[in-house]
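In the laboratory, one determines a bound structure by crystallizing the protein with its ligand and collecting diffraction data. In a computational setting the workflow is compressed into a single prediction: the sequence and the ligand go in, and a structural description comes out. We illustrate the idea with nicotinamide-adenine-dinucleotide.
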Amino acid sequence: MSLQVGVIGTGMIGQDHIRRLTRVLSGVSVVAVSDIDRNRAADAAPEGAEVFAEAGDLIRSDKVQAVVICSWGPAHEAQLLDCIAAGKPVFCEKPMVTSEAAALKVMEAEVAFGRRLVQVGFMRRFDADYRRLKAVIDGGTLGAPLMYHSTHRNASVPEGLYTSEMPLNDTLVHDADVTRWLLDDEIAGVEVRVPRRSTRGKDLRDPVVVLLHMASGALVDVEISVNIAYGYDIRGEVSCEMGVAALPNRPATVISDRHGIRQAIPEDWRERFIEAYDQEFREWIVAAGQGTATGPSTWDGYAATLVADAALRAVESGQTETVAMRDKPDLYARPVAAVA
Ligand code: NAD
Ligand code: ISE
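The predicted complex, in C-alpha coordinate form:
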Protein backbone atom coordinates (compact mmCIF):
# COMPACT_ATOMS: atom_id res chain seq x y z
CA MET A 1 0.00 0.00 0.00
CA SER A 2 1.12 3.50 -0.75
CA LEU A 3 2.39 5.68 2.16
CA GLN A 4 0.08 8.69 2.55
CA VAL A 5 2.13 11.79 3.13
CA GLY A 6 1.34 15.38 4.12
CA VAL A 7 3.79 18.13 3.10
CA ILE A 8 4.16 21.31 5.20
CA GLY A 9 5.82 24.27 3.45
CA THR A 10 5.34 24.49 -0.30
CA GLY A 11 8.14 26.89 -1.26
CA MET A 12 11.21 25.98 -3.31
CA ILE A 13 12.19 22.67 -1.76
CA GLY A 14 8.62 21.77 -0.76
CA GLN A 15 7.60 21.93 -4.44
CA ASP A 16 10.66 19.95 -5.50
CA HIS A 17 9.94 17.22 -2.92
CA ILE A 18 6.25 17.11 -3.96
CA ARG A 19 7.43 16.59 -7.55
CA ARG A 20 9.66 13.66 -6.56
CA LEU A 21 7.02 12.14 -4.24
CA THR A 22 4.37 12.30 -6.95
CA ARG A 23 6.29 11.80 -10.21
CA VAL A 24 9.57 10.06 -9.45
CA LEU A 25 9.19 7.69 -6.51
CA SER A 26 6.82 4.80 -5.99
CA GLY A 27 5.02 3.54 -2.89
CA VAL A 28 4.05 7.03 -1.76
CA SER A 29 1.36 9.62 -2.43
CA VAL A 30 0.95 13.23 -1.29
CA VAL A 31 -2.56 13.44 0.19
CA ALA A 32 -2.28 16.79 2.01
CA VAL A 33 -0.35 20.07 1.90
CA SER A 34 -0.15 23.13 4.13
CA ASP A 35 1.58 26.51 3.99
CA ILE A 36 1.05 29.81 5.79
CA ASP A 37 0.61 31.12 2.24
CA ARG A 38 -2.62 29.29 1.40
CA ASN A 39 -2.50 30.17 -2.31
CA ARG A 40 0.99 28.74 -2.62
CA ALA A 41 -0.19 25.54 -0.94
CA ALA A 42 -3.21 25.31 -3.26
CA ASP A 43 -1.00 25.84 -6.36
CA ALA A 44 1.44 23.15 -5.20
CA ALA A 45 -1.20 20.59 -4.17
CA PRO A 46 -1.26 17.49 -6.38
CA GLU A 47 -4.68 16.50 -7.70
CA GLY A 48 -6.91 15.21 -4.90
CA ALA A 49 -4.68 16.45 -2.06
CA GLU A 50 -6.38 18.37 0.75
CA VAL A 51 -5.10 21.86 1.55
CA PHE A 52 -4.84 22.57 5.29
CA ALA A 53 -4.64 26.11 6.67
CA GLU A 54 -2.96 24.86 9.87
CA ALA A 55 0.08 22.58 9.88
CA GLY A 56 -1.12 21.00 13.16
CA ASP A 57 -4.41 19.93 11.56
CA LEU A 58 -2.54 18.28 8.67
CA ILE A 59 -0.31 16.42 11.13
CA ARG A 60 -3.30 15.12 13.14
CA SER A 61 -5.42 14.24 10.08
CA ASP A 62 -6.31 10.53 9.88
CA LYS A 63 -5.53 10.47 6.18
CA VAL A 64 -1.87 11.47 6.82
CA GLN A 65 0.41 8.58 7.81
CA ALA A 66 3.73 10.44 7.62
CA VAL A 67 4.81 14.07 7.34
CA VAL A 68 7.40 16.01 5.31
CA ILE A 69 8.39 19.39 6.81
CA CYS A 70 9.72 21.99 4.36
CA SER A 71 8.76 25.18 6.20
CA TRP A 72 11.35 27.70 7.46
CA GLY A 73 13.78 26.54 10.16
CA PRO A 74 12.22 28.44 13.09
CA ALA A 75 8.84 26.72 12.41
CA HIS A 76 10.29 23.19 12.59
CA GLU A 77 10.32 22.79 16.39
CA ALA A 78 6.54 23.08 16.90
CA GLN A 79 5.80 20.95 13.83
CA LEU A 80 8.22 18.20 14.90
CA LEU A 81 6.73 18.15 18.40
CA ASP A 82 3.23 17.80 16.92
CA CYS A 83 4.41 14.88 14.73
CA ILE A 84 5.98 13.11 17.71
CA ALA A 85 2.83 13.70 19.81
CA ALA A 86 0.80 12.12 16.97
CA GLY A 87 3.31 9.22 16.72
CA LYS A 88 3.88 9.88 13.00
CA PRO A 89 7.18 9.41 11.14
CA VAL A 90 8.48 12.73 9.88
CA PHE A 91 11.09 13.86 7.38
CA CYS A 92 12.27 17.34 8.39
CA GLU A 93 14.38 19.57 6.16
CA LYS A 94 17.53 21.01 7.68
CA PRO A 95 18.16 22.88 9.87
CA MET A 96 16.26 20.54 12.19
CA VAL A 97 15.72 23.51 14.54
CA THR A 98 17.49 26.79 15.17
CA SER A 99 18.50 26.61 18.86
CA GLU A 100 19.99 24.12 21.29
CA ALA A 101 16.94 24.44 23.58
CA ALA A 102 14.63 23.48 20.69
CA ALA A 103 16.85 20.53 19.70
CA LEU A 104 16.75 19.22 23.28
CA LYS A 105 12.96 19.52 23.42
CA VAL A 106 12.56 17.51 20.22
CA MET A 107 15.08 14.91 21.37
CA GLU A 108 13.45 14.55 24.80
CA ALA A 109 10.01 14.11 23.20
CA GLU A 110 11.28 11.42 20.81
CA VAL A 111 13.19 9.60 23.55
CA ALA A 112 10.04 9.64 25.74
CA PHE A 113 8.05 8.27 22.78
CA GLY A 114 10.57 5.42 22.68
CA ARG A 115 11.02 4.97 18.94
CA ARG A 116 12.80 6.97 16.26
CA LEU A 117 10.34 9.01 14.21
CA VAL A 118 12.49 11.85 12.83
CA GLN A 119 14.79 11.89 9.80
CA VAL A 120 16.65 15.15 9.13
CA GLY A 121 17.24 16.28 5.52
CA PHE A 122 21.02 15.93 5.39
CA MET A 123 20.93 14.64 1.82
CA ARG A 124 24.70 14.56 1.29
CA ARG A 125 24.76 11.26 3.21
CA PHE A 126 22.71 9.76 0.34
CA ASP A 127 24.85 11.17 -2.49
CA ALA A 128 26.73 8.45 -4.40
CA ASP A 129 29.99 10.48 -4.54
CA TYR A 130 29.97 11.13 -0.78
CA ARG A 131 29.12 7.48 -0.11
CA ARG A 132 32.10 6.33 -2.21
CA LEU A 133 34.35 8.82 -0.44
CA LYS A 134 33.20 7.49 2.95
CA ALA A 135 33.78 3.90 1.83
CA VAL A 136 37.42 4.77 1.02
CA ILE A 137 37.99 6.46 4.40
CA ASP A 138 36.26 3.63 6.29
CA GLY A 139 38.28 1.06 4.30
CA GLY A 140 41.37 2.33 6.15
CA THR A 141 43.88 1.92 3.30
CA LEU A 142 44.80 5.63 3.45
CA GLY A 143 45.27 5.59 7.22
CA ALA A 144 43.63 7.97 9.67
CA PRO A 145 42.02 11.16 8.34
CA LEU A 146 44.01 14.23 9.45
CA MET A 147 42.30 17.07 7.61
CA TYR A 148 39.15 17.63 5.58
CA HIS A 149 38.70 20.54 3.19
CA SER A 150 35.05 21.34 2.48
CA THR A 151 33.94 23.93 -0.06
CA HIS A 152 30.30 25.04 -0.09
CA ARG A 153 29.53 27.65 -2.73
CA ASN A 154 26.09 28.95 -3.73
CA ALA A 155 25.67 31.13 -6.82
CA SER A 156 23.15 33.18 -4.86
CA VAL A 157 20.61 32.91 -2.06
CA PRO A 158 17.11 34.42 -1.92
CA GLU A 159 17.35 38.13 -1.15
CA GLY A 160 15.65 39.26 2.05
CA LEU A 161 14.78 35.80 3.35
CA TYR A 162 18.41 34.79 3.81
CA THR A 163 19.85 36.65 6.82
CA SER A 164 23.41 37.31 7.96
CA GLU A 165 23.30 34.43 10.45
CA MET A 166 22.28 31.89 7.80
CA PRO A 167 25.69 31.07 6.29
CA LEU A 168 26.40 29.66 9.77
CA ASN A 169 23.04 28.34 10.99
CA ASP A 170 21.47 27.27 7.69
CA THR A 171 24.29 26.52 5.22
CA LEU A 172 27.19 25.32 7.44
CA VAL A 173 24.97 22.63 9.01
CA HIS A 174 25.44 20.47 5.87
CA ASP A 175 29.25 20.61 6.18
CA ALA A 176 29.07 19.99 9.92
CA ASP A 177 26.89 16.92 9.43
CA VAL A 178 28.81 15.43 6.54
CA THR A 179 32.10 15.96 8.43
CA ARG A 180 30.86 14.02 11.49
CA TRP A 181 29.57 11.24 9.24
CA LEU A 182 32.57 11.02 6.89
CA LEU A 183 35.23 11.10 9.60
CA ASP A 184 33.14 9.23 12.20
CA ASP A 185 34.23 11.84 14.70
CA GLU A 186 32.61 14.59 16.78
CA ILE A 187 33.17 18.33 16.46
CA ALA A 188 34.66 19.64 19.70
CA GLY A 189 35.37 23.29 18.83
CA VAL A 190 34.57 25.91 16.17
CA GLU A 191 36.51 28.93 14.95
CA VAL A 192 35.32 31.40 12.33
CA ARG A 193 37.41 33.77 10.21
CA VAL A 194 35.83 36.49 8.11
CA PRO A 195 37.81 37.60 5.06
CA ARG A 196 37.19 40.68 2.93
CA ARG A 197 33.45 40.84 2.30
CA SER A 198 32.05 40.19 -1.16
CA THR A 199 30.29 43.27 -2.49
CA ARG A 200 27.74 40.90 -4.05
CA GLY A 201 26.71 39.73 -0.58
CA LYS A 202 24.51 42.76 0.17
CA ASP A 203 24.31 42.89 3.97
CA LEU A 204 25.46 39.30 4.40
CA ARG A 205 28.63 38.20 6.14
CA ASP A 206 29.90 36.42 3.06
CA PRO A 207 32.21 34.57 2.59
CA VAL A 208 33.27 32.93 5.86
CA VAL A 209 35.93 30.37 6.67
CA VAL A 210 35.11 27.96 9.48
CA LEU A 211 37.58 25.70 11.26
CA LEU A 212 36.11 22.64 12.91
CA HIS A 213 38.31 21.09 15.61
CA MET A 214 37.48 17.39 15.78
CA ALA A 215 37.60 15.34 18.99
CA SER A 216 40.32 13.15 17.40
CA GLY A 217 42.49 16.21 16.72
CA ALA A 218 41.72 16.24 12.97
CA LEU A 219 41.10 19.72 11.57
CA VAL A 220 38.44 20.68 9.04
CA ASP A 221 38.29 23.90 7.04
CA VAL A 222 35.03 24.96 5.44
CA GLU A 223 34.60 27.73 2.89
CA ILE A 224 31.06 29.08 2.86
CA SER A 225 30.31 31.43 -0.04
CA VAL A 226 26.65 32.12 -0.69
CA ASN A 227 26.80 34.66 -3.52
CA ILE A 228 29.62 33.53 -5.75
CA ALA A 229 27.73 34.01 -9.04
CA TYR A 230 29.30 31.28 -11.18
CA GLY A 231 27.31 28.29 -9.89
CA TYR A 232 26.69 25.77 -7.10
CA ASP A 233 30.06 24.24 -6.38
CA ILE A 234 30.46 21.60 -3.68
CA ARG A 235 33.90 20.08 -3.09
CA GLY A 236 35.47 17.87 -0.48
CA GLU A 237 38.92 16.40 0.03
CA VAL A 238 40.11 14.26 2.94
CA SER A 239 43.86 14.24 3.69
CA CYS A 240 44.89 11.06 5.46
CA GLU A 241 48.17 9.66 6.76
CA MET A 242 49.01 7.87 3.50
CA GLY A 243 46.96 9.54 0.81
CA VAL A 244 44.16 11.84 -0.15
CA ALA A 245 40.58 11.07 -1.24
CA ALA A 246 38.35 13.66 -2.89
CA LEU A 247 34.88 14.03 -4.36
CA PRO A 248 35.10 13.94 -8.16
CA ASN A 249 34.22 16.94 -10.28
CA ARG A 250 30.63 16.27 -11.24
CA PRO A 251 30.54 14.32 -14.51
CA ALA A 252 29.10 16.63 -17.15
CA THR A 253 29.34 16.91 -20.91
CA VAL A 254 32.65 18.45 -21.97
CA ILE A 255 32.04 21.36 -24.32
CA SER A 256 34.81 22.52 -26.64
CA ASP A 257 34.29 25.70 -28.61
CA ARG A 258 36.04 28.96 -29.42
CA HIS A 259 35.97 29.90 -25.69
CA GLY A 260 37.91 26.78 -24.74
CA ILE A 261 37.11 23.44 -23.11
CA ARG A 262 34.57 23.48 -20.27
CA GLN A 263 31.99 21.55 -18.25
CA ALA A 264 28.70 22.95 -16.97
CA ILE A 265 28.37 23.73 -13.25
CA PRO A 266 25.05 23.01 -11.48
CA GLU A 267 22.89 26.09 -10.91
CA ASP A 268 21.81 25.16 -7.41
CA TRP A 269 21.24 22.34 -4.90
CA ARG A 270 18.22 20.99 -6.82
CA GLU A 271 20.45 20.03 -9.74
CA ARG A 272 23.61 18.98 -7.87
CA PHE A 273 21.85 16.73 -5.37
CA ILE A 274 18.88 15.53 -7.44
CA GLU A 275 19.76 11.83 -7.09
CA ALA A 276 20.69 12.25 -3.41
CA TYR A 277 17.26 13.72 -2.57
CA ASP A 278 15.59 10.87 -4.49
CA GLN A 279 17.61 8.31 -2.54
CA GLU A 280 17.03 9.93 0.87
CA PHE A 281 13.27 9.70 0.21
CA ARG A 282 13.47 6.12 -1.08
CA GLU A 283 15.03 5.11 2.23
CA TRP A 284 12.66 7.32 4.25
CA ILE A 285 9.56 5.84 2.57
CA VAL A 286 10.62 2.31 3.55
CA ALA A 287 11.27 3.25 7.20
CA ALA A 288 8.21 5.50 7.51
CA GLY A 289 6.08 2.67 6.12
CA GLN A 290 7.30 0.64 9.11
CA GLY A 291 6.41 3.41 11.52
CA THR A 292 9.95 4.59 12.20
CA ALA A 293 12.91 6.54 10.80
CA THR A 294 16.47 5.72 9.77
CA GLY A 295 19.09 8.04 8.28
CA PRO A 296 20.24 11.29 9.92
CA SER A 297 18.56 11.44 13.33
CA THR A 298 17.45 13.97 15.90
CA TRP A 299 20.86 13.37 17.51
CA ASP A 300 22.55 14.45 14.25
CA GLY A 301 20.24 17.47 14.00
CA TYR A 302 21.15 18.36 17.60
CA ALA A 303 24.89 18.06 16.85
CA ALA A 304 24.61 20.35 13.81
CA THR A 305 22.61 22.88 15.84
CA LEU A 306 25.31 23.01 18.51
CA VAL A 307 27.96 23.60 15.83
CA ALA A 308 25.90 26.43 14.30
CA ASP A 309 25.41 28.02 17.74
CA ALA A 310 29.15 27.74 18.45
CA ALA A 311 29.97 29.27 15.04
CA LEU A 312 27.70 32.24 15.74
CA ARG A 313 29.43 32.74 19.11
CA ALA A 314 32.85 32.37 17.48
CA VAL A 315 32.15 35.19 15.00
CA GLU A 316 31.58 37.53 17.93
CA SER A 317 34.36 36.28 20.20
CA GLY A 318 37.08 35.64 17.61
CA GLN A 319 37.96 32.59 19.76
CA THR A 320 37.54 28.84 19.39
CA GLU A 321 34.14 28.08 20.89
CA THR A 322 33.55 24.72 22.53
CA VAL A 323 30.84 22.29 21.40
CA ALA A 324 29.67 20.39 24.45
CA MET A 325 27.32 17.54 23.57
CA ARG A 326 25.18 15.66 26.07
CA ASP A 327 25.60 11.92 26.48
CA LYS A 328 23.96 10.13 23.57
CA PRO A 329 20.58 8.63 24.51
CA ASP A 330 20.34 4.87 23.89
CA LEU A 331 17.63 5.47 21.31
CA TYR A 332 20.27 6.86 18.92
CA ALA A 333 22.96 4.34 19.76
CA ARG A 334 21.00 1.19 18.98
CA PRO A 335 20.04 -0.07 15.53
CA VAL A 336 16.55 0.95 14.47
CA ALA A 337 13.98 -1.79 15.01
CA ALA A 338 11.30 -1.86 12.36
CA VAL A 339 7.74 -1.85 13.64
CA ALA A 340 5.42 -4.57 12.38
P1 NAD B 1 11.00 28.86 0.84
O1 NAD B 1 10.97 30.20 1.49
O2 NAD B 1 11.07 28.78 -0.64
O3 NAD B 1 9.76 27.99 1.33
C1 NAD B 1 9.37 27.88 2.68
C2 NAD B 1 7.87 27.78 2.72
O4 NAD B 1 7.46 27.50 4.06
C3 NAD B 1 7.18 29.10 2.31
O5 NAD B 1 6.20 28.82 1.31
C4 NAD B 1 6.54 29.60 3.60
O6 NAD B 1 5.33 30.32 3.39
C5 NAD B 1 6.31 28.29 4.35
N1 NAD B 1 6.21 28.41 5.79
C6 NAD B 1 6.96 29.14 6.61
N2 NAD B 1 6.57 28.98 7.88
C7 NAD B 1 5.55 28.10 7.86
C8 NAD B 1 4.71 27.52 8.86
N3 NAD B 1 4.85 27.83 10.14
N4 NAD B 1 3.77 26.63 8.46
C9 NAD B 1 3.61 26.31 7.16
N5 NAD B 1 4.35 26.86 6.17
C10 NAD B 1 5.32 27.73 6.52
O7 NAD B 1 12.25 28.11 1.49
P2 NAD B 1 12.96 26.78 0.96
O8 NAD B 1 14.19 27.13 0.21
O9 NAD B 1 11.97 25.88 0.35
O10 NAD B 1 13.47 26.16 2.37
C11 NAD B 1 12.60 25.50 3.26
C12 NAD B 1 13.43 24.66 4.24
O11 NAD B 1 14.17 23.69 3.50
C13 NAD B 1 14.45 25.45 5.04
O12 NAD B 1 14.58 24.89 6.31
C14 NAD B 1 15.75 25.27 4.25
O13 NAD B 1 16.91 25.39 5.04
C15 NAD B 1 15.58 23.86 3.75
N6 NAD B 1 16.30 23.60 2.48
C16 NAD B 1 17.05 22.49 2.40
C17 NAD B 1 17.77 22.24 1.25
C18 NAD B 1 18.65 21.04 1.17
O14 NAD B 1 19.55 21.02 0.33
N7 NAD B 1 18.44 20.01 1.97
C19 NAD B 1 17.70 23.10 0.15
C20 NAD B 1 16.88 24.21 0.27
C21 NAD B 1 16.18 24.45 1.43
C1 ISE C 1 19.92 25.68 1.29
O1 ISE C 1 18.90 25.83 2.26
C2 ISE C 1 20.44 24.29 1.30
O2 ISE C 1 20.20 23.51 2.17
C3 ISE C 1 21.47 24.03 0.30
O3 ISE C 1 21.84 22.68 0.25
C4 ISE C 1 22.65 24.88 0.70
O4 ISE C 1 23.71 24.70 -0.21
C5 ISE C 1 22.25 26.35 0.73
O5 ISE C 1 23.34 27.12 1.18
C6 ISE C 1 21.07 26.58 1.68
O6 ISE C 1 20.64 27.92 1.60
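The pocket of ISE (ligand 2) is lined by residues 94, 154, 157, 170-171, 174, 226, 269 (CB under 6 Å). Keep in mind that any predicted model is a hypothesis to be tested, not a measurement.
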